Each structure stands twice: as structure tokens, then as C-alpha cells.
Amino acid sequence: MFSLDVMFWILAISAIGAAIAVVSMDDVFWAALFLVASFLAIAGLFVLLNAEFLAAVQVLIYVGAISILLIFAIMITRNPQEGSTSNGFQLVAKLLIGVLLISMSIALVNTDWNELHDYYEIGPGVASQANTQVQAGAVSVFADTTPVLAQLLLKDYVLPFEVASILLLAAVIGALVMVQERSR
Amino acid sequence: MSLENFLLLSAVLFCIGLYGAVTKRNIITVLMCIELMFNGVNVAAVAFSRYILPRGLAVNPKISENDIATVIANGGPIGDTVLSTLLTGQVFAIFIITVAAAEIALGLGIVIAIYRNRDTVDITNINMMKG
């Protein structure tokens, strides 16, 4: 447990540090590279959360595809003289977003979540048979999440799954139409 | 490493992304900051799926504790369905990633089209629809 905690803090600090670098870098190319670092740290966090499939998807789609697209777009549009400077709203934005962050933190720390580990850690005197059965079930689900996820995606959520594929097709066609040269 | 840690991390990532999306002038940086916000939301969704017991599964002494327990203990399709609700957050994260991929493809398409017509990626100069 101790080493998992250490891993969490390393990954969390690198994700947040890379995210701060993304918004503070003036050079767009360096910002994109720090974005990749942040995505990788978040993939590690997914592994810590027993979401191995999502970690692989994160690496393939965010680190592999989206960042390459971003870097290509930067190379096509980059104007070496001007970086990504900020506009005049910085102070107002900092204040408002600081207030937002503080209120979100207070809300989510003070909420009484219905946490799973409360059920794991119930003592033997309190634990009913039902509790232990639910615990054992949860342990078996999180031991290997990919098959359960496949079942969910292709059975319970099959309609959103198909809609997502149509959405991707529409996005591909739309992007092609927009980027196409108008030869007239 | 608890639910609160992950939620705080996701809130911080979301706020950093929001700050960048509001203040930056380069469209591509704005798109990158929106991706950061998506990632913050994803972390929250996966953390909820890992740490929260859905109300329907929660063994509440008042309602039907033995029903749920027997269903899970007997296994089979119904028990699996009940247990797989634990992973709903991960399914949501997959759909969020899909939408983010579509969004970035369209967004960069728009960026390239604008750059070709106006020769700029600075959002303060893109004000064709200003009245």
C-alpha cells in the first residue's frame, strides 16, 4: 500500500506540473510536449485505479493520435515570431477559477461518499454475510476489469457504442470536408 | 491514495485547463487546454467507478440486502450484471475519450481552414462574426 501511495503522489505531481507547464509555456510546441507528459502520467493513474484497458486506450489515443495531430497542426500553422501569448483576462480568470477550485474542493471533501472501502474494512463483528459477498464480488470485478468492460460495452451500452461509431465517422468526414482545398 | 485525492487531482487539472482555455490566444493551445479538462473529468469518472459503491449495490440494512447478496453469490448472468454496474464510470470514460477524439479532429480541421483563409491562429483576430 505504501509504494502505491508514493506512486500516486509522483504521478499526480507530474500530471499537475506538466499541466501547469502547458498553460505557462509561450512556445506552443513545448506546450504540446508537456501535454503528452501529462497524458502519460494520467495513464499511470488509470493503472493505479484498476483501469488497465483505459490506460492502454489513453496511451494509444491521447499520447499516440491526438498529440500527433496537435503537433502536425502546430507545424502547419506556427508563426515563429509570436508564441501563445495570453490575453488581458489573466487576473480576472485567476480569481474566478481560484474561487471555483476552492468551492469544488470544499464540496468534494465534505461530501459523504458511499465508499467501497468502507465495506472492505468493516470489522468481523459487524460484517454480515451480505457484506462479505458484495466485497468478494467487487474484488473479483476489479481483479480483471477488461472482460467485464467488454461485456458492458457490447451488451448494456451497445446503442451508445454504435452512436459513438457514427459520431466518429461524421467527425472524419467533416474534418476532411473542412480541410479540403477548394479547387475552382 | 483515496477517493478525495483523486477528485482533488481531477478538480485541479480541470481548473488548469479552464484557465488556459479562457486566457490563451493561440487556438491550438486552447484546444490542448480543453483536452486537459477532458482528462480531469476522466480521472474523476474512473475514480468514482473504483471507489464508490452504487446505491443499488450498497448493502443497506433497510432494503433487500439478502436479495443482492444472493444474486451476487449465485453468480450467473444476473449476478454479473449487478457487479458490472461497478464499472459504469469506466464506460463513461471511454465515451468521453471518443467524444474528445472527434472534437480534436474537427477542431484542428477548423483551425487549418481558418489559417488557410485568414493566415492567423490568434483567436483575438478571428472576429468575422463580430457585429
Report on the structure:
The complex is a heterodimer of chains A (184) and B (131). Chain A is mainly alpha-helical. Chain A has a domain of 87 residues: Up-down Bundle (Four Helix Bundle (Hemerythrin (Met), subunit A)), CATH 1.20.120. Chain A has 8 helices and no strands. In chain A, helix 1 runs antiparallel to helix 2. The radius of gyration of chain A is 22 Å and the shape is globular. Chain B is mostly helical and 131 residues long. Helices cover 73% and strands 0% of the residues of chain B. The radius of gyration of chain B is 22 Å and the shape is elongated. At the A-B interface, helix 1, helix 2, helix 3, helix 4 and helix 6 of A face helix 1, helix 2, helix 3, helix 4 and helix 5 of B.
Distance between the termini of chain B: 51 Å
Structural class of chain A: mainly alpha
Helical fraction of chain A equals: over 70%
Total of helices of chain A? 8
- Percent of residues in beta strands of chain A: under 5%
Could you tell me the strand content of chain B as a percent range? under 5%
Distance between the first and last residues' Cα of chain A: 65 Å
The CATH H-level homologous superfamily of the domain at 1-87 in chain A: NADH-ubiquinone/plastoquinone oxidoreductase chain 6, subunit NuoJ
CATH topology of the domain at 1-87 in chain A: Four Helix Bundle (Hemerythrin (Met), subunit A)
| Low-pLDDT sequence parts of chain A | 121-127
Q: Could you give the count of β-strands of chain A? A: 0
What's the gyration radius of chain B in Å? 22 Å
At a glance:
The complex is a heterodimer of chains A (184) and B (131). By secondary structure, chain A is mainly α. Chain A contains eight helices and no strands.
Secondary structure elements and pairings:
The complex is a heterodimer of chains A (184) and B (131).
Chain A: H1 2-24, H2 28-48, H3 52-77, H4 90-110, H5 117-120, H6 129-143, H7 145-156, H8 158-179
Chain B: H1 3-23, H2 27-51, H3 65-74, H4 76-84, H5 88-118
Helix pairs in contact in B: 1-2, 2-5, 3-4
